[in-house]
Amino acid sequence: MIGLVIATHSNLAQELINAAEMIIGPARNVKAVCIRKEDSVETIRSGVIEAIATVGGDGEGVVVMTDMFGGTPANISLSLLEPKKIEVLTGVNLPMVLKFFNSQEGLSLFELAAMLKAYGQQSISLASEFLQN
């Protein structure tokens, strides 16, 4: 089973998991890495590595979702990128997290990550555009 690590500034990662579990129930094979202002780069890196090891134990791979490209969670996660083992997606949102839990079986790590990227982008809407049509 492909694992999921969500790494973000502050408590966003844990809150995304909490929100997903409110909707779908208990989630398996997921870890949050919540980065604080006072955390050192090495502390953060160790936390991400430990989370990847925890959810990726069966060898099917791990998707790491981070809050924004260019931020510390993304930069550290990108340094761990390993094709076919670790994929990194930036711009995490709740629809992406929910889709992960509904789609993690039967797809390769790359196929899943690519599908989650597209789904996350499709989940962004400008409500007034619906009223104009």
Automatic annotation (TrEMBL):
Residues forming the PTS EIIA type-4 domain are: 1-124
**In its keyword annotation, does this UniProt entry include Kinase?**
yes
Q: Which UniProt keywords apply?
A: Cytoplasm, Kinase, Phosphotransferase system, Sugar transport, Transferase, Transport
Major site of localization recorded for this protein = cytoplasm
Superkingdom, natural source: Bacteria
Q: Which Pfam families match?
A: EIIA-man (PF03610)
Q: Where is the protein situated, by its record's location annotation?
A: Cytoplasm
For this protein, the record's InterPro entries field holds: Bacterial_PTS_sugar_comp, PTS_EIIA_man-typ, PTS_EIIA_man-typ_sf, PTS_IIA_man
Q: Write the protein's name.
A: PTS sugar transporter
Q: What is the lineage of its organism?
A: Bacteria, Pseudomonadati, Thermodesulfobacteriota, Desulfuromonadia, Desulfuromonadales
